[in-house]
Amino acid sequence: MTQYLPPNLLALFAARDPLPHLPPADKLPHEKRRVPYAGVAAFLDGFEDPKDTPPPTRVETRDERKERKRKERQEQHAYKLEQDLALWDPASNGNSTMDPFKTLFVARINYDTSESKLRREFENYGPVKKICMINDRNSGKPRGYAFIEYEHERDMHSEYTALPALSLSPLPALPHLPLALPLPLSL
C-alpha cells in the first residue's frame, strides 16, 4: 500500500540515522566524590550590614497613579476656580445687570427680534433700565434669550404676572424670574 504514496509522504516514514556511539564517562555520577555542602558562613563578609540597607522603593500601582492624577487635576481645577473667583469683578462686566431682583429673563425669542422691539414691548409695564440680548461669542448671532432690567422691582413683577407669553415670534417668548429669586406667593 505504501508503494502508491507520493515520494514526499514516503520521506516522512523513512528511518532516521542511527545515534552516534559515545565512549562511557570516567565515573558514573553516583561514583564521583562530591564536595560536601557547606553554609554561606564563608561569604557573610561580602554581604552589607542590615543597618546600611536602603528602604525598599515602593512602586505606585496603576490605580494609585490614576487616583493621584485625578486628585492633582481636581486640586488644579479648584485652585483655578479660586483664582478666577478672586479676580472676578461683576461691576466691570458691562453686559451684566446690576440688581437681580429687578431682572427678568426672557427665553424663546425669535432670532430676528431686535433690542428696540423688546424695549417697546416691555416698556408697557414700566421703565426699562437695560436690555441685554445674549449673542454667540464666535458667530455673533443671537442665542434666543435676553435679560431685561427694570427701574423698579414692582414693574418687573407686574409684567411677569400680567403676561404669561408674548407674541414676538411664532413661538411665544416666555418671561421668567431668575431661579435664584424667591417667587411671590400671588403667582
From TrEMBL:
Domain (RRM): residue spans on this chain: 102-163
PROSITE patterns reported for this sequence? RRM
Specify residue ranges for compositional bias: Basic and acidic residues: 59-76
Where does this polypeptide localize?
Answer: Nucleus
Q: Where is this region: Disordered?
A: 45-76
What does UniProt give as GO cellular component? ribonucleoprotein complex
Q: Which domain of life is it from?
A: Eukaryota
What SMART domains does UniProt report for this protein, alphabetically? Answer: RRM
Keywords from UniProt, A to Z, are: Nucleus, Ribonucleoprotein, RNA-binding
The protein in question is named: U1 small nuclear ribonucleoprotein 70 kDa
Its taxonomic path starts at: Eukaryota, Metazoa, Spiralia, Lophotrochozoa, Mollusca
This protein's gene is called LOC106012256
